[in-house]
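User: Before I run my own analysis I want an independent prediction to cross-check against. Here's the chain; please return only the structure tokens and, at the end, one sentence I can use as a sanity check.
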Amino acid sequence: MAALELLSAEGFRPDGRRPAELRKLRARMGVFAQPDGSAYIEQGNTKALAVVYGPHEMRGPRSKALPDRALVNCQYSMATFSTGERKRRPHGDRKSSEMSLHLKQTFEAAILTELFPRSQIDIYVQILQADGGNYCACVNAATLAVIDAGIPLRDYVCASSAGLVEDTALADLSYLEEAAGGPQAALALLPTSGQMALLQLDSRLHEDRLGAVLEAAGGACRAVHAVLDGVVREHVREVTALLGD
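Assistant: Structure tokens:
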């Protein structure tokens, strides 16, 4: 798709959003009773599910246990029906392994792992429907699931993507915008401190333009934080009301 088609002369994107506008974001916590924490999120047409187990004793060789902190284990997968491509998506493919590593790095920076030495925290995320921003949806869903599990965090971890069309930065890219190519970034941010948990650039980007992309992604992360915080507060009210009954 030509770059001009991604942004109209009036400043609208293909789905009618302004450059800095996010897709509609909806989320729920505590969607399953069996795991310690769980959450479901929709960012536009991208839908993700996250479950968390732990902290618990190490599974497998005890030599893998870390004496001063918990081991964070992350696994990412895509449902076979999540895209229009009907093919097997094994857990061990390169893309899934790379995404799992990114999630692990992200949550190692956010979870207070030093409180749980010689233990393990498992985070499983699955994309149920893919329409751009898969990593970001997984981070946001996993954040809610970790909070639901009662695992202490340094801060919320909020993620969003951003790209560049000519000189205009676009926040929260859809699949159509990702597929068009061009400079793109995915940012996982701890919004209170402004610390970056992870930053991924999918193509080369000149230093002069990096600031605009990071500003768009950072603004989107802070907007995501406001939504996630509202979801957590609503969940706490619901749980408190149930306990009161």
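Sanity check: The chain has four helices and nine strands.
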